[in-house]
Amino acid sequence: GAVVSQHPSRVICKSGTSVKIECRSLDFQATTMFWYRQFPKQSLMLMATSNEGSKATYEQGVEKDKFLINHASLTLSTLTVTSAHPEDSSFYICSARRGTGSFDTQYFGPGTRLTVL
Amino acid sequence: AQSVTQLGSHVSVSEGALVLLRCNYSSSVPPYLFWYVQYPNQGLQLLLKYTTGATLVKGINGFEAEFKKSETSFHLTKPSAHMSDAAEYFCAVIGTGRRALTFGSGTRLQVQP
């Protein structure tokens, strides 16, 4: 099956610092990747759609200057949380879309738990 | 636009009993429907999906779901629960013209010995 990895799996940082999270599709090329955020005991909320070679599309209410997304290659997308604050603490999950047709499926990474002190 | 409603945030069954997790969707176009499972502190794993064709879809770990257009439902079932099935289950939908999944609020399945 398709494999998507995320790194790091867990990160603790001080308030005001920036944190970069990587999402990689290991055995397929993904022109589109998605970034989700999940608060404890809640569902996943889409933050942005990352397209290889172009700017990310952010969902309403998501600060693009705070959550920087780069999709530099067909297998890698990065999410940088800039000037992190405690309210940014959450579980961040990426997914990579395999295929370009109607039956494409998203494969999810294992998630990154961010704790901002 | 599309949305997903999962009835019951918590479901508890005995080991060996039938599992039924409910999902209703709203979509202005023919939907593609998915069920994902999430174990603690992990990402999501695809259980099964419906795109077109046969309305009864079989997935991994003995789960299956039936797409019922007339009821706008896509309920997940498993004949006999196992302790390892305890997890959070998410129903999701994609509508035409949109590539990101819209998730339901999730249902936590507990399996009692």
If you had to describe this structure to a student in words, what would you say it looks like?
The complex is a heterodimer of chains A (117) and B (113). Chain A is an all-beta fold. Chain A has strands spanning 4-7, 10-13, 19-25, 32-38, 44-51, 57-58, 67-73, 76-81, 90-98, 105-108, 112-116. Chain A contains no helices and eleven strands. In chain A, strands 2, 4, 5, 6, 9, 10 and 11 form a seven-stranded mixed β-sheet that branches. Chain A has a four-stranded antiparallel β-sheet with strand order 1-3-8-7, with no helix packed on it. Chain B has 113 residues and is mostly beta strands. Chain B is built from no helices and eleven strands. Chain B has strands spanning 2-7, 10-14, 19-27, 32-38, 44-50, 56-58, 64-68, 73-78, 87-94, 102-103, 107-112. In chain B, a hairpin with a 4-residue loop joins strand 7 and strand 8. Chain A binds chain B through residues 4, 6, 32, 34, 42-46, 49, 91, 93, 95, 97, 102-111, 113, and chain B through 32, 34, 36, 41-46, 49, 51, 90, 99-106.
Number of strands of chain A: 11
Average pLDDT reading of chain A: 90
Strand content of chain A: over 45%
Taken from the alpha-carbon principal axes, the silhouette of chain A is: globular
Strand content of the residues of chain B, in percent? over 45%
Biggest pleated-sheet summary of chain B = 6 strands, mixed
Helix content of chain A: under 10%
Query: Termini distance of chain A?
Result: 37 Å
How is this structure best summarized?
In chain A, 0% of the residues lie in helices and 54% in strands. With 117 residues, chain A is mostly beta strands.
